[in-house]
Specification:
single chain, mainly alpha, MetI-like fold, flat
């Protein structure tokens, strides 16, 4: 009679505990929210006349509770064991506990007071209340960000390849890059607004500048450090300069180039938020400053911050996927 190994039994028990932990944590947070008295003096909102079961925060918790219960049924009854379950369940449970602590120290215990520290009930309610405006702001931010980032990437890769490959270009170009590149893009906002009457073009130019510097530096470094043995072998086989650049130097420099793309994307996020707040009268940055100044509506401010976090994280994840796809041929050689 076959018996399971101790390690396998421990793994299965850990999976069962993790599912039960998610359900228990969600149920506890939901019960505390529904039955503990509110010590914060909540402002009048659109949620006041609604029954409890129609409010966003309890609905989210109830949705997580139902999803956890369905996972438990699929796990124990149907034998469904997805590979991602063990990896993500602790993260979901930690997120639920974090939101529960947030609800406790704000709305329930009033340790962090209004209007600066609203609870999740008000923040998620603000997201529903301003859903249309937030979606439009996110779309405008996406268009502006991709416009500036794309231009910055093209210019950065072009200048990086030229500086890294041609010694004469590197002699004249690298000092310029070292002097101009470190300037914060946000410090150039007044100059950009003077040079162009179109606020979109000004903001996109600043994002392109913030992206251009790290992409240029990392691309140039990657091109300049291509192994001479690779170039010598290609030359021996009859490769010309164009072939050496496109088929030897650039593929070898791709890991460095992607590091520059990540750094440029992070810099573009900061530039986007600032440019939208002071120049472009649209986007998530503009919404954030508008709500902060309009009667200190901090629930809407936190709602915008949550959306910005999800927005930027999604773009960064998409770039990770592109990198993994492009550098699939280096799997096992480079550990990310």
């Amino acid at each position: 009679m076959a018996t399971s190994s101790p390690s396998r039994v421990e793994t299965e028990a850990a999976k069962e505990f993790e599912i039960a932990g998610l359900i228990a944590a969600t149920a506890l947070v939901l019960l505390c929210h529904l039955f503990l008295p509110n010590r914060q003096r909540l402002p009048m909102t659109w949620m006041d006349p609604l029954p409890t079961w129609k409010r966003p925060f309890p609905l989210i918790l109830e949705g997580v509770l139902v999803a956890g219960s369905l996972l438990a049924i699929a796990r124990f009854v149907l034998g469904w064991r997805p590979g991602w379950l063990r990896h993500y369940l602790p993260l979901f449970t930690a997120a639920v506990v974090t939101v529960g602590v947030w609800d406790g120290v704000t709305q329930k215990l009033n340790w962090m007071r209004l209007p600066y520290f609203p609870g999740p009930d008000l923040v998620f309610g603000a997201m529903v209340e301003d859903a249309a405006l937030l979606v439009e702001s996110a779309w405008r931010s996406l268009v502006l960000l991709l416009s500036g980032y794309s231009v910055g990437v093209i210019l950065g890769m072009t200048s990086g390849v030229l500086i890294g490959w041609f010694p004469h270009v590197r002699y004249w170009g690298m000092p310029i890059v070292k002097i101009v590149g470190p300037l914060p893009a946000t410090a150039l906002i007044p100059l950009a607004m003077v040079l162009s009457d179109n606020s979109f073009i000004s903001a996109a130019s600043l994002i392109a500048f913030a992206t251009w510097f790290p992409v240029t530096m990392l691309t140039a470094s990657g091109i300049a450090n291509v192994r001479h043995a690779h170039l010598d072998v290609a030359r021996t086989l009859g490769a010309g300069p164009a072939y050496l650049i496109w088929h030897v130097a650039i593929p070898s420099a791709l890991p460095n180039m992607f590091i520059g793309l990540f750094m440029g994307l992070a810099a573009s996020f900061l530039t986007l938020s600032v440019a939208e707040g002071v120049g472009v009268q649209a986007g998530l940055g503009y919404y954030l400053r508008w709500r902060q100044g309009a009667g200190m509506e901090y629930a809407n401010v936190y709602a915008a911050l949550l959306l910005m976090s999800a927005f930027f994280s999604s773009l960064m994840t998409a770039l990770f996927l592109v990198r993994d796809r492009v550098l699939a041929w280096q799997k096992g050689v480079i550990r990310w």
